[in-house]
Specification:
The complex is a heterodimer of chains A (about 270) and B (about 400). In chain A, about 20% of the residues lie in helices and about 30% in strands. Chain A is an alpha/beta fold. Chain A has 2 domains: about 90 residues, Translation factors (Elongation Factor Tu (Ef-tu), domain 3), CATH 2.40.30.10; about 130 residues, Nucleotide-binding domain of ferredoxin-NADP reductase (FNR) module (Rossmann fold). Chain A has a 7-stranded mixed beta sheet, sandwiched between helices. Chain A has a 6-stranded antiparallel beta sheet with strand order 4-3-6-1-2-5. A two-stranded antiparallel ribbon of chain A has the order 13-14. In chain A, helix 4 runs parallel beside helix 5. Chain A is globular, with a radius of gyration of 18 Å. Chain B has 13 helices and 16 strands. In chain B, helix 8 packs antiparallel against helix 11. Chain B is globular and about 65 Å long. Classes of the chains: A alpha/beta (about 270), B alpha+beta (about 400).
Chain lengths: ~270, ~400
């Protein structure tokens, strides 16, 4: 329950409210992690919140976190300048296990900041691109200004033969891309549902409809995985806050298969 | 070791022997009109002659007109706060010129004298079978997967004197949950000694069963006589009579499936019209384990730290995310509590989270009864099935 100290090495802006920090341990080795896992990140004297890891699992130093400033703690974290020491506990939870998609297609469906937890898995696939057939990244954001990782999106498409499709809820005058919801991208992307592993991360309602859209394309329920968000405090299944019926989302999740989640996320307030 | 027999003076000798070994002895006392656990040094502090009347939303002490030391049902609080204090320091940190330092060790220094844990090791006197089962459940929850070091240390050091329940309350249902009324080895947490109070006129005595070497050692320090066949039979009679006087009943067969299937039952809305979401039930429940963390700082912000405090799934902010509350309605919170306790707990820990102590029924200000609501859900499910 005691945090390790990490120092902020760099901080770069992604959007108006989101920044990506690179952190290195003050003492001890780097934080090995699986793509999809999260840490509890502490701003000293302010508090601690769960943030997914968005770096490269094969090169865990530096520890990379993309943080959207939405509350007092995440504001303090996103605003931490180079040299600031933050506390880190973890990594916690289950990963995407994207390797299960080897030999077939992999479809990543991201909504908003939901691209951050998927990024390590996308990098994992790009690093072993020949092991996979068709790979698609389907990404929806609120506005063009909210799009994360523009460089990555271009690189994945240009250098790693990834089908990258982007849509926004609200276009602006200079926006020449698609306007609409991300589920529409699922309907038209070029993958073969029967051999697809679908990994989905975003707001819960977006994940529900994206999962349904993937099922419509013939993806099996147990081949669709969602990263669930619940109130997490301890990270080790002791505090009880993140419970989703029988699951402690911080330990049994955050990544859970859709066949397990289907009866749970279709019920209000469960 | 064969069962032994002691009298009331023997109970005092037992307390003395435990105190002499350095234990803080915690036993039932009468305080504020209720049976409440507190540190004791004398048998005179036990609730001699006191019983209780318990009903949904009602608790009253009742004079028994005898000298019984343990003639009452579940007290207001179980052993939970002894091992799992309402507030615990996780760590303290200090801001330094180049960041901060964290100190996790020597938390004892940080503990106020009035904070639980400061007086360990504990000897618990008079733990009922339901509460032994609850300690066993908390052992699984708090040390089975990722050990809570402070809890584990307090538990390992503790000496437990169990007691057979002789006068169960109107809200008790330990027979339904298979957790009482008599302590049994292998059922619930291990204990060192078990007392059964025999209240025969002129022969007020206690059968003492020994279940640990430590227990035998302590009992060896005090005078006791061997138990006769009559003593053993009398103790069996106490437990048998108690088992026949359960105030409530809970059908546990298929309860998990019943609750999982009832997620959209109108029962939750009905309960919500009565439930105050006050969290009394989770506070008195001997197995509820949810906690919150509080980040604390001094005025200058140079000292900071985290405390763990009891929390409740009935609290509005329990499920708070930046987008809002997962469980905004009271009905959804009651559903969470009851479904967790009686169903999801089985999937999580291989056991039910309910020990039938009845505290959640007694201490609910709105007299909501978990056994009643379970029966309503069962009736509703049966009616659904009967539909053509």
């Amino acid at each position: 329950m005691v945090p390790r100290r990490f120092v902020v090495r760099s901080s770069r802006p992604d959007t108006r409210d989101t920044r990506t920090l690179e952190l290195s341990p003050v003492d001890g080795g780097p934080l090995a992690f699986d793509a999809g896992q999260f840490t509890m990140l502490l701003a000293f004297g302010v508090g601690e919140v769960p943030i997914s890891i968005s770096g490269d699992p094969t090169a865990p130093d530096p520890l990379v976190h993309t943080i959207r400033a939405v509350g007092p703690v995440s504001r303090a974290l996103a605003g931490a300048s180079p040299g600031t020491v933050l506390g880190v506990r973890g990594p916690f939870g289950t990963g995407w296990s994207v390797g299960d998609g080897r030999g077939g297609d992999v479809v990543f469906v991201a909504g908003g900041i939901g691209l951050a937890p998927l990024r390590p898995a996308i990098r994992e696939v790009c690093a072993a691109r020949a092991d996979y057939a068709h790979v698609a990244v389907l990404y929806g954001a609120r506005t063009p200004d909210d799009l994360l990782y523009a460089d990555d999106l271009q690189r994945w498409a240009g250098e790693h033969d990834v089908e990258v499709q982007v849509t926004v809820d609200h276009g602006q005058h200079a926006w020449r891309g698609r306007v609409g919801v991300v589920t529409e991208l699922v309907a038209r992307a070029r993958f073969d549902g029967a051999r697809t592993l679908g990994l989905v991360c975003g707001p819960e309602v977006m994940m529900r409809y994206s999962a349904l859209a993937l099922l419509d394309r013939g993806v099996r329920k147990d081949r669709v995985r969602l990263s669930m968000e619940r109130n997490m405090q301890c990270g080790v299944g002791l505090c009880g806050h993140c419970q989703l019926r029988e699951y402690f989302v911080c330990v049994d999740g955050p990544v859970l298969p859709y066949d397990a989640l289907e009866p749970l996320i279709s019920r209000a307030e469960l | 070791m064969e069962p032994r027999v002691i009298d009331t003076a023997g109970v005092q000798a037992l307390v003395d022997a435990l105190l002499a070994r350095g234990y803080t002895v915690v036993g039932p006392t009468v305080r504020s009109g209720a049976i409440v656990n507190a540190p004791i040094t004398s048998v005179e502090q036990l609730p001699r002659g006191w019983g209780d009347d318990q009903e949904a939303g009602r608790y009253r002490l009742r004079g028994r007109g005898d000298d019984a030391l343990f003639g009452f049902a579940s007290g207001a609080q179980s052993a939970k706060p002894v091992f799992f204090p309402t507030e615990e320091v996780l760590w303290r940190g200090r801001r330094t010129p180049d960041g901060f330092t964290v100190e996790a060790e020597d938390l004892q220094d940080d503990r106020r004298d009035d904070q639980p844990g400061a007086d360990a090791p504990y000897a618990l006197l008079g733990v009922r079978s339901c509460d032994l089962a609850a300690i066993g459940i908390q052992d699984t929850v708090l040390t089975g997967r990722r050990p809570d070091a402070a809890y584990a240390a307090r538990r390992a050091a503790a000496f437990v004197v169990a007691v057979t329940c002789s006068d169960p309350g109107g809200t008790c249902f330990c027979v339904s949950t298979g957790t009482g009324p008599r302590p049994g080895p292998g059922r619930g947490a291990p204990y060192d000694l078990a007392l059964t109070e025999l209240l025969e006129p002129g022969a007020h005595r206690f059968l003492v069963e020994v279940t640990s070497d430590r227990g035998a050692e302590v009992l060896g320090d005090i005078g006791s006589t061997s138990a006769t066949a009559a003593d053993l039979e009398a103790a069996d009679g106490v437990a048998d009579r108690a088992a026949r006087r359960m105030g409530r009943e809970l059908e546990t067969d298929g309860l998990k499936e019943l609750l999982y299937a009832a997620a959209e039952s109108p029962v939750w809305d009905d309960v919500a019209t009565r439930c105050l979401a006050c969290a009394n039930c989770t506070a008195v429940c001997p197995t509820c384990f949810c906690t919150d963390v509080e980040d604390v700082t001094d005025l200058t912000g140079s000292l900071a730290g985290r405390n763990r405090v009891w929390d409740s799934c009935f609290d509005a902010d329990f499920s708070l995310l930046h987008g809002g509350r997962v469980r905004a309605s009271t009905g959804s919170r009651y559903r969470q509590w009851m479904t967790h306790k009686l169903a999801a707990w089985i999937d999580q820990f291989g056991m039910s989270g309910c020990v039938g102590c009845g505290r959640c029924i007694t201490w609910c200000p709105a007299a909501i009864d978990i056994t009643h609501e379970a029966a309503v859900l069962r009736r509703e499910a049966a009616e659904q099935e009967a539909l053509p």
